[in-house]
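BUG: 3D viewer hangs when loading the predicted structure for this chain

Environment: internal workstation, default settings.
Expected: structure renders.
Actual: progress bar stalls at 90%.

Input used:
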Amino acid sequence: MLYSTVTPAQKRERFRELLAAPQIARFPGAFTPLSTTLIQEQGFEGVYISGGVLANELGLPDIGLTTLTEVATRAGQIARVTDLPCLVDADTGFGEPMNVARTVQELENAGLAGCHIEDQFNPKRCGHLDGKNVVDTATAVKRIHAAVAARRDPNFVVMARTDIRGVDGFDAAVERARALVDAGADVVFPEAMADLSEFERMAAAVDVPILANMTEFGKSELFTTRQLQDAGVSMVIYPVSLERQAMGAMERLLTTIREDGTQQAQVETMLTRKRLYELVDYTGYNRFDSGIFDFEVPGAPEH
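Structure tokens produced before the viewer hung:
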């Protein structure tokens, strides 16, 4: 009921444990607090919050238009309802080194377990789009230095994302990743790897865990968790999968209403009223203090 009783500090400790474990950690992407409830219920290890998804939910493309306040607010709403550690996409840190430092502290305040900072120019581009530009190594390193120096909880994970693979090739990505690790990055997120062998070579090239981005319609094949784990990947994200699935279902429903004049043909595919009430825990709220906050949950068993 209400919010998670697991503290942000405990979630950050758990995130560190997951990164150090031999099993790959799976972080599906949540776009609402309610979708986060499903991720936890299904037994996943953590929750990912995509900057692209947050932009899309505001009706914006993923080109660096969202603000720190918007991202921290939504990410905090997601993080506070789950016992799982949440990793958030902080784009380029919303500015240069001092802005990066503030970003990290705002995300700590919001209850996040970690964030990743990337090495693109502003305005940035989705990592699987063409036409990206990356900053020089010195600028990328300053961002990570600032993020590491700013955090107050040493367990808050500072992850470095590099998009240089799609610009200058794989060898450049390895060189950039090593520089970011030397700057203090806890994890490397090498974006748009071409195949499993590149993940394997990247994992061997750095002394920190690496993350794989299994986004649909991107540059990488959708490898299984077993394939990625065998290649040395410690963590995998599915950033846009839930949003794409949900939006597809909504589009189909609206088409049905427009064409049939009723939603009846889609009702069987919908989440039932009973299931929705389970996810938002109506019964738990009802038990909290029936003398003050009393209501009946339709279909709930009597206690």
